[in-house]
Amino acid sequence: xxCPSVWKYREILPIDETQEPISIExxxxxxxxxxxxxxxxxxxxxxxxxxxxxxxxxxxxxxxTVGVSKAIExxxxxxxxxxxxxxxxxxxxxxxxxGIPAVVLLPEGKVALGxxxxxxxxxxxxxxxxxxxxxxxxxxxxxxDDEKFYLLNSVNPYRLExxxxxxxxxxxxxxxxxxxxxxxxxxxxxxxxxIYKGFKEFMNIGITDKVPRMTGIQSEGAAPIVxxxxxxxxxxxxxKNPDTIATAIRIGNPVNAKxxxxxxxxxxxxxxxxxxxxxxxxxRDLAQLEGIGVEPASASSVAGLKKLVNDGIIGKDETVVxxxxxxxxxxxxxxxxxxxxxxxxxxxxxxIRNAVFSD
Length: 359
Ligand SMILES: Cc1ncc(COP(=O)(O)O)c(/C=C/C(=O)C(=O)O)c1O
Prior knowledge:
single chain; alpha/beta; 42% helix; globular; binds the ligand Cc1ncc(COP(=O)(O)O)c(/C=C/C(=O)C(=O)O)c1O
């Protein structure tokens, strides 16, 4: 039987040995060496851990396989979350896999179409809340308290237990070498917390002797963690109206802020912001230089790396891993909006040739 890659690490995942994992063979994503992109950015070594190639198209699957397995182990009857989209898509799919109902709360009008499509078709009860993600999260936590639904936002530690396997795989895939730095997008801040935990666990059990510098990137329109970091603070001041083209990280009050800031400080990492334009340019660079198709939030890791190298903060001799977190197909509308339109031609060879050879 194929051993699903997250569950390769079963011994250090907190699920009872009698509980069969609810798994769709998540994890085991590629770590691509990206020399053309590294040259363009101007660093020695760049790897991209492409989490968009998980079964539902984002890294959330790693957290959900553990979180939904735990829900079944605990005899929970319904799972629920608030989401900017990918968490809800993943929860809908794992709920279907487990045979239990899922309730998801989405910020009205601010969720990429692919993610809504997944949650709907996989049978989740999809509520479109007249408010933003942060408001939806407050409401779904109340709902879970009142109705004894199992909350599967990343405030649930079992989500982080699954996502820490990203750190394990990066080390495995680098032949047990530890990269100087890992750069990733930060929204609710569960992933940076989880990946850092994975690196620390590998060090604590003696597989490695150090951890990478955790470097979190936010869109400048939604950057409470970066603001706290720039002021050397251990917690955030919530942003009331976060806004960015990267709707996946359009979050003003990240639940894991304290843990994420601790991970950044402890690992001698850092946090910085990028503009929406820098995100879109990085999305193009990943797609066109390396064939890696990602949704906007994912590209903020590469956009942030580019900025930090240009600012002389990240050394040109560093070997860096960027985590890209969601697949391009999640947000096709954004791609159509930022790309040139297809060229309309008559069904004649003359028309085709004119179009092919015109600039
Ligand atoms: C593509 C993509 N990239 C980065 C993030 C940020 O990760 P965290 O910092 O762990 O929150 C998300 C998060 C999405 C949700 O929070 C949700 O789906 O509700 C994402 O979908």
